[in-house]
Amino acid sequence: MSTLTLISKPGCHLCDVAREIVDTVVADLPGDADVEVVERSIFDDPALFEQWWEKIPVVLIDDRLHAHWRVSADRLRAALTDETPTPTEESA
Questions:
Q1: CB atoms closer than 10 angstroms to residue 49
Q2: Most buried residue, 44, 47, 60, 87, by CB count within 10 Å?
Q3: Mind listing the pLDDT tens digit for each residue in 20-57?
């Protein structure tokens, strides 16, 4: 099982967009892809705030940075399914 952590804050437009992308990608994953999604606010944890306040939204996969500011659905899908997106998928 993989854990995808979305680090965000209330009232953040980019966070709302990232949440929609995460929800859509995870819902469309093959049945054998087991992904737990956790959302954490920088306002609930001073350490998260200190580390990420200027980069939110932040997506971590298994505690490793995957993306910040903008989340690509194709790149996220590839990371969660161990596939490499083609350049046309990445830029779409």
A1: 15
A2: 60
A3: 999 999 999 988 789 999 999 999 999 999 999 999 99
